[in-house]
Amino acid sequence: MKNTPESVALFLEGKRIAVAGASRQKGQAANAILERLAETGHEVFPVNPNASHVAGRNCYPDLAAIPRERDGVVIAT
Q1: pLDDT for the residue 1
Q2: pLDDT, tens digit, for every residue of 9-41?
Q3: What is the SS3 assignment for 42?
Q4: Strand 53-54 and strand 43-47: pairing?
Q5: Which stretches within the chain are classed as H helix?
Q6: Which among 59, 40, 42, 39 has a CA at the least distance from the CA of 50?
Q7: CA 57 from chain center: how many Å?
Q8: Partners of residue 19 on adjacent β-strands
């Protein structure tokens, strides 16, 4: 990515990223972030206490429920 701030580039070096605020409704910003991260090779973990699946992926009620360590979290609410 051109002109990516160093802090963002460093964050994106992590490969396992949770997206808190993932929505069951299509077209939400959090879901676009989730999909873009997946498209760029990241393993993504949607987080929403009111959903079991988001965008065809298992969804977790909170960060502690994710069965693997994460390299980062995007909060999109």
Answers
A1: 53
A2: 999 999 999 999 999 888 899 999 999 999 999
A3: coil
A4: unpaired
A5: 6-12, 29-39
A6: 59
A7: 11
A8: 46, 74
Burial class (CB in 10 A: 0-12, 13-18, 19+), 34: buried
Distance between CA atoms of 18 and 46, rounded to whole angstroms? 6
Contacts 24+ apart (CB under 8 A), 55-60: 55/22, 55/31, 59/22, 60/18
User: What confidence tens digit (pLDDT) does each residue in 41-75 have?
Assistant: 999 999 999 999 998 999 999 999 999 899 999 99
The residue among 13, 57, 8 whose CA lies nearest residue 35 is 57
Query: Among all chains, which residue has been given the structure tokens 């995007």?
Result: 74
Asked if residue 14 lies in contact with residue 75, where contact means CB atoms within 8 angstroms, the answer is: no
Torsion of CA 12, 36, 32, 48, to 10 degrees: -60
Contact 73, 65 (CB under 8 A): no
